[in-house]
Design brief:
CATH topology of one domain: Immunoglobulin-like
Helix content: 10-25%
Number of strands: 8
Strand order of the largest sheet: 2-8-7-4-5
CATH class of one domain: Mainly Beta
Shape: rod-shaped
Strand content: 15-25%
Largest sheet: 5 strands, mixed
Radius of gyration: 65 Å
Structural class: alpha+beta
Length: about 290
């Protein structure tokens, strides 16, 4: 290859590199530091190699604040405010637990004879949303009521009443308790919507939960008090005669009787004598 031909090829390469460098510098002057232009001894004409357009980088948005700072070149768009959710106020029920009241009939000691349970329940509340339920729970035990450990000895047996009483109404209670394997039953009259809602064991119930209670002899055999035995005296040995009662007889009783009779006759005779003498005296005065 001749020297002239080799120089022409080198000039073509340099021209191509120069054109390429110019295009890159025009695209983004920050990518490359400026370089002095390459001088060629003979200008040559070369066809530029087509290049695909390079996408320009999109600057990331700067963080903004609201309200915008003075002199800021960005106009921030305020965030859309979410409307506050207005809660519907919950209605507060003005309820008095003891508006449900009643009694179970007994003799004052909470004991009853027989198995019939009677009483009444009344709801004096004005609000139909307030508690209305009453229940009767039955517990059994073989221990005598109210002796030490009485509550702890009880076992829940059944619920014999579950009743709702509307406001300003009265309901009569009349139930027959069935006999159980336990000798004694405690009948608890309770407000059904006050804790505890289920029958607890032992039945520790007090305060607003309890309305009334009874003690019932509910065993398979009716409890009967054993009467005191009658004492019969049996005579033994020879009976001893008892001394007579009253005053002893007087030996002069006959004499006393005669004197009494004589005094009586003497009185009668003196009375007749005085009457006769008075009569004679009146006759003399007339004559």
């Amino acid at each position: 290859m001749s020297i002239l031909t080799e120089r022409n090829i080198n000039h073509d390469i340099l021209a191509h590199l120069t054109q390429r460098t110019r295009e890159v510098r025009e695209f983004d002057s920050d990518w490359f530091s400026p370089t002095p232009p390459l001088n060629s001894e003979q200008p040559t004409t070369s066809t530029p190699i087509p290049t695909e357009p390079r996408p320009s980088a999109t600057p990331s948005p700067e963080p903004t604040e609201w309200p915008p700072a003075p002199g800021s070149k960005f106009t921030p768009i305020p965030a859309t405010e979410t409307p506050a959710v207005t809660e519907t106020p919950t209605q507060v029920l003005n309820c008095i637990v003891t508006d449900l009241k009643g009694i179970l009939n007994h003799d004052g000691s909470h004991f009853i004879r027989g198995l019939e349970i009677t009483g009444y329940v009344e709801n004096i509340s004005d609000n139909p949303e307030c508690p209305q339920n009453v229940k009767i729970w039955v517990y059994g035990s073989n221990q005598y009521p109210e002796t030490p450990g009485w509550l702890e000895s009880q076992k829940y047996l059944t619920t014999i009443l579950n009743l709702n009483v509307p406001p300003h109404e009265i309901r009569e209670i009349r139930l027959i308790l069935e006999r159980t394997p336990y000798e004694w039953c405690q009948v608890d009259f309770v407000r059904g919507e006050v804790e505890p809602l289920e029958p607890p064991e032992p039945p520790y119930l007090s305060g607003n939960k309890m309305i009334d209670y009874l003690f019932v002899n509910c065993g398979l055999e009716e409890f009967q008090e054993t009467p005191a035995p009658e004492i019969t005296l049996t005579p033994t040995g020879t009976p001893i005669p008892l001394p007579p009662t009253g005053n002893p007889p007087d030996e002069n009783m006959d004499v006393y009787r005669l004197l009494g009779d004589a005094s009586l006759y003497f009185g009668i005779g003196m009375g007749a004598y005085v009457a006769l003498k008075g009569l004679l005296y009146r006759k003399r005065v007339k004559n």
